[in-house]
Amino acid sequence: MPRILKEKLVFMLVMAGLMVLGMSTYNVYLAQGIDDRFWNEILFGYPIALAVAMLFARMSIS
């Protein structure tokens, strides 16, 4: 587990990033299946969802 602030921030970024990517992929797959816009939908929603996840993760660290 991370001990210093820099380690905590990197750990938070990696964990939140992978979680958001996995959940976004799963939700888009369930909503529309795999089609032409599959990766576009994920890439469009990823930064927004990552910002929300980072905000909540940062609130839980402090």
Kindly list the characteristics that best describe this protein.
62 residues; mainly alpha; elongated
Could you walk me through the main structural features you see in this protein, from its secondary elements to its overall organization?
The protein is mostly helical and 62 residues long. It has one domain (5-61). The protein has two helices and no strands. The protein has helices spanning 5-32, 38-61. This is DUF2798 domain-containing protein. Pfam families: DUF2798. The chain crosses the membrane at residues 9-30, 42-61.
How are the elements arranged and paired?
Blueprint: H1 5-32, H2 38-61
Short description:
InterPro entries: DUF2798. This is DUF2798 domain-containing protein. This protein is mainly α and 62 residues long.
Tell me how many strands there are: 0
Strand content: under 5%
Compressed to H and E, one letter per element, the order equals: HH
Q: What average pLDDT do the residues reach? A: 89
Span between termini: 15 Å
- pLDDT < 50 runs, ≥5 residues: none
List the domain count as a whole number. Answer: 1
Envelope shape: elongated
Discrete helix count: 2
Fraction of residues in H or I helices: over 70%
Determine the structural class based on helices, strands and strand pairing.
mainly alpha
Computed over alpha carbons, the radius of gyration is 14 Å
Major sheet size, sense and barrel closure: none
Keywords: Membrane, Transmembrane, Transmembrane helix
Protein name: DUF2798 domain-containing protein
Organism: Fructobacillus broussonetiae
Pfam families: DUF2798
